[in-house]
Amino acid sequence: MTDTSTLNFDGRAVINGERVSARDGQTFDCISPVDGRVLTQVARGGQADIDAAVAAARAAFEDRRWSGMAPAQRKRVMIKFADQLLAHADELALTETLDMGKPVKYARAVDVNSAANCIRWYGEAVDKVYDEIAPTADTALALITRQPVGVVGIIVPWNYPMIMAAWKIAPALAAGNSVVLKPSEKSPLTALRMAELALAAGIPPGVFNVVPGYGPEAGSPLALHMDVDCIAFTGSTRVGKQIHVMAGQSNLKRAWTELGGKSPNIVFADCPNLDRAVEAAVGSIFFNQGESCNAPSRLFVEASIKDAFLEKALKLVPNYQPANPLEKSTVMGAIVDKVQLDNVMRYIDLGKSEGARLLAGGERALCDSGGCYVLPTIFDGVTSQMTIAREEIFGPVLSVLSFTDAAEVVREANNSVYGLQAAVWTSDLNKAHGVARALRAGTVHVNQYDEDDITVPFGGFKQSGVGRDKSLHAFDKYTETKTTWIRIDSPV
Questions:
Q1: Contacts (Cβ under 8 Å, ≥6 apart) of 186
Q2: Catalytic-role residue among 217, 258, 291, 412
Q3: Mind listing the pLDDT tens digit for each residue in 388-439?
Q4: Which of the residues 118, 230, 271, 293 is marked catalytic?
Q5: SS3 of 142, please?
Q6: Residue 293 catalytic?
Q7: What does the pLDDT look like over 11-40, one tens digit per residue?
Q8: Which residues is 484 bridged to in the sheet?
Q9: pTM of structure
């Protein structure tokens, strides 16, 4: 599974079922954060490429080569698409690791499997979602039906390239839409390969297009395009706000945004299993090198148990030392690129300068490898006014805060512009329900962190975004609800 010699990267766009270079011939280097090598040159998509992809998607939608298929037929193709991902699982996992830096064992066990499961689940679901008949008088028949919105533009981030793409393309395609996907320029390779595998599974040309490129050059034209009916975005809150503005400036297209997070993880003194809470706190912040929007980066521990908690936590830190992600034993890999590595180090320096106490890490690692690595980092003595407790770092940096009562910790946990996820650890059922209800977050975990399933929605409150990925609720984003009112003049 770790033999990279057989990989052959193709960085060209996929438009109307064909691999094509950018219209102006421009490319950019795809650099691996593992060791700094150039993996390939990738098409640097721009306005002309987005125009071509949208035109192909529109033609495919209008001639109903996909949208006109019966749901059961689309289901069969989607299942074949999922099977294609699993058939090429080792290739996709290695590509993801080289492109983004995550450990290959997680790329294989988590990313590939989750993406395939998502595509399969929405394929299975689409012919089991019923429309409605309104409870009208006998003189009318009111049908409430769902129809695909049309052309869906999708922009996804670099931290979970396959999973984030699958969360959006699966319900969009299953519902009958045509898609133009713009992957992050930091990790575009698996998205391009997924488009090929979709074609091999039977998704018609033009239905699923992928245009790599930079945000201002390819992402903005997609969000501003007058012939795109819906734009779905996962990324930073700063860019998400721009997406909403662009949607309004253009054709008032629907805009769905899953944005940043600064998730609070609250451990009360009556936590039922302190060891499990410690393992979850450490494992969840250091998983994927901390490059997760839902990472529990703010750890609130009740003052009476904080010392015991941190003693246990520090003993686990050596288990998360960064190493070559291509090694099967590695659990923490490389930061996605030098820009993000420098950003993480900037936040670590801010934590030190603002008075937080560094307990572990705080330095770069494997500096001679040519890659981008940082040690797992824990700060104690953090206050909610510090930058590292307010802003999303997107790296393996844990901020520890203490509290003495439930009202205080709820107030501090909610003292954030974000509201993506949260967690509560307690043996008191009333406290668990009361705190969970009071927390302003899209998901609240109780006595665990990050247990998950495709059947539940994912998204946030406040500036963590608009709309929900996953579950049947995702179909709401990619369908229009239509009422057809039929008058009935009874002959009897």
A1: 100, 158, 336, 337, 340
A2: 258
A3: 999 999 999 999 999 999 999 999 999 999 999 999 999 999 999 999 999 9
A4: 293
A5: strand
A6: yes
A7: 999 999 999 999 999 999 999 999 999 999
A8: 143
A9: 0.97
